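All the exercises in this workshop are built on plain-text protein records. A record pairs a protein's sequence with a compact description of its fold. The structure tokens are whole numbers drawn from a learned vocabulary of backbone shapes. Once this layout is familiar, the rest of the handout is easier to follow. An example says more than a description, so a record of this kind follows.
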Amino acid sequence: MQTCWVVMPPFREVADRLRERFDGAAKVIARNDGTSLMPEGRTIKPPTKEDLVYAEESPDFCRPNHRTGSLGTQGRECNATSLGTDGCDLLCCNRGYRADLVTRKVPCHCTFEWCCEVKCKMCDERKTRYTCV
């Protein structure tokens, strides 16, 4: 007897494949026959069954939009050193960002006491916080 299992690839691999297809997605419009789609631009090859397509442009999430429920990115915390989606340039839509020095209390100098108790002091932690303007 032999048992076969269908296994999903790792999540990272699935995400990477989707991202590749998302980056190559083509805008399409319905053909007059009403049963098929064609690319909106003339220089784009017709999409295959494997391609991602879209019919409408995504809304602008940089600015508040009550119709879509988007609050925009003003005031959002960002990472000034990241080139990813959490990076200030991308997240703040190239509008710029502000740096503030913030202080907060965090547990520190923790010790384990017999039996079953961890005691910590509270220390001030200073951190630069970046927010979109």
Observations:
- The chain has two helices and six strands.
- The chain has a mean pLDDT of 90.
- The beta strands are 26-30, 37-39, 53-54, 77-78, 97-113, 117-132.
- Residues 61-132 form a domain with the Endo-n-acetylneuraminidase fold fold (CATH 3.30.2460.20).
